[in-house]
Amino acid sequence: xxxxxxxxxxxxxxxFMKGAIIQLATGELKRVEDLQTxxxxxxxxxxxxxxxxxxxxxxxxxxxxxxxxxSLQFTVGEQQSKVTIDVPPEHPFFVFGQGWSSCSPERTxxxxxxxxxxxxxxxxCVSITLQPPP
Amino acid sequence: NVEPRSVPVFPWHSLVPFLEPxxxx
Lengths: 134, 25
Prior knowledge:
The structure holds two protein chains of two kinds.
Chain A: E1 21-23, E2 29-31, H1 37-47, E3 50-62, E4 70-76, E5 81-87, E6 93-95, E7 99-102, H2 105-112, E8 117-118, E9 124-130
Parallel strand pairs in A: 7-8
Antiparallel strand pairs in A: 1-2, 3-4, 3-9, 4-5, 6-7
Chain B: E1 9-11, H1 21-24
């Protein structure tokens, strides 16, 4: 079975540095700041085994377990399953039709040089899950 | 001779949250 990627809180932040080279599933290379919604959709289509889900932000609050982090609660996919993840405030998420967004666009700009919108309740983010077998 | 620096290339799926099916049940 495909291996599971790490959760955002533990991912390598250099992915998000402005100018970082990202390889799409089509083989195309793009800079992280140039990615668009259809790049994710197309990559999931051709990669097989992965499915793009819509994850709507329903709550944003300071993490109680991990000071300095932000707890983001999402409702995911058609089943509206609720998922909470703790991330640094500068962690960017890709919002459908809008692009990179974080809880602290100022910190994202300082740390990564990546221009972000402010992530808010109601934003719908790109997430991926395993495609169920046919 | 100067060796060319290798530029890291990251896969697209490393940029977005991977939600495990167990989270979604």
